[in-house]
Amino acid sequence: MKQNNTEDRTKLVLAVILIAVGLIWLLHLIGIHFHMQDLFYPFVKVIRFVSRILFSWPMILVIAGFVMVAGQRGGGWILVALGGLFLIPRIFNFSDFSFSLIFPLILILVGVAMVIRRL
């Protein structure tokens, strides 16, 4: 019974695909054109933005840090913080952001963490 239901769904999906392809082809032949790149442009823009963040070297630091935290090893949160710090310009797209600002920020964060631990 279950196999018969699956075959019906497969035939239905195939029928819908054939109808869609036939309609698009017919509309193209009578002069109505669809610009698919305009239809999918918002999705392409989001995918490019996310991939610019996910496939970057700072993300390697973040992932390695989370792996270290999951394995209860020391220094994992430091890697997560460093990776996150280097990801900030990629996420928020600061036009006047310079990497020379990161190292003073790191010193400030380390100092604040030392003060908090002391209290």
Strand content bin: under 5%
Write down the domain tally: 2
Class from secondary-structure proportions? mainly alpha
**Intertermini distance:** 69 Å
The amount of helix comes to over 70%
Q: What radius of gyration results from the CA coordinates? A: 26 Å
What is the secondary structure topology, with strand pairs?
Elements: H1 2-29, H2 36-39, H3 41-54, H4 57-70, H5 76-92, H6 102-118
Helix pairs in contact: 4-5
Can you summarize this structure?
This protein is mainly alpha-helical and 119 residues long. The protein has helices at 2-29, 36-39, 41-54, 57-70, 76-92, 102-118.
Structure description:
79% of the residues lie in helices and 0% in strands. It is mainly α and 119 residues long. Helix 4 (57-70) runs antiparallel to helix 5 (76-92). The protein folds into two domains: 1-34; 40-118. The protein has helices spanning 2-29, 36-39, 41-54, 57-70, 76-92, 102-118. It contains six helices and no strands.
Relevant terms:
single chain, about 120 residues, mainly alpha, 2 domains, elongated
